[in-house]
Write a structure and sequence with these properties.
This protein has one domain (2-227). Helix content is 80%, strand content 0%. The protein contains eleven helices and no strands. The longest helix has 23 residues, at 27-49.
Length: 235
Amino acid sequence: MTGTLINTITVIAGGTLGTLLGERLPTRIRHIVMQGVGLVTLAVGMSMALTTNNFILVLVSICLGGILGEWWQVEERLDRAGQWLEAKAARIPFLARGDFTRGFVTASLVFCVGPMTILGSIQDGLTGDYTLLAIKSVLDLFAGLAFAASMGMGVTFAALTVLLYQGALTLGATPFQALLSQAMITEMSATGGVIILGIGFLLLEIKRIKVGNFLPALFIAPLLAALWERWGPGV
């Protein structure tokens, strides 16, 4: 859990510092920083998506995941979780600044979707080596600062999502390692890259996408990859 704890602390630090600096930073500076983060988010998402060995698996995973996400109202549930925290935070004037829900949801998705989260948590749980999560922590520190400068303290509360999600992956590392082949991890990461592309579009205000509703695709992708490994053409 060492890596997850470090990551949680860096998210809290970045989010809090960004909130403190937010009102002191000119709007144009905050805007250009968010654009920079959005562009890099697109680049990261594209690089992850291109690691796939079969774009058909990614396409089917995204489509099925989106259907399940709409059915289960994943995005709406995330929004309600953010709104509940926002209502609690509204009692403290310092915490009420900015778009709390957007900051919480966006930061939670950015911090928890990606190969570093999955592989780093598993590695930390199995061997105690938290190198990958330490690298991710540095990235999340600066991303959290940039997000919070624009969207407020909701970004800091995304540390709860990081702690719970990465902590669960770390504690369940042994069964995860036994179940996931390299091909399954590859397609899961590539599918996560497509979801991160959607986050990039949101950050750049290009298109409003219900990114949260695609999260079930992360669980569908490895299942399809396993089926493809066993019964796919040419296997």
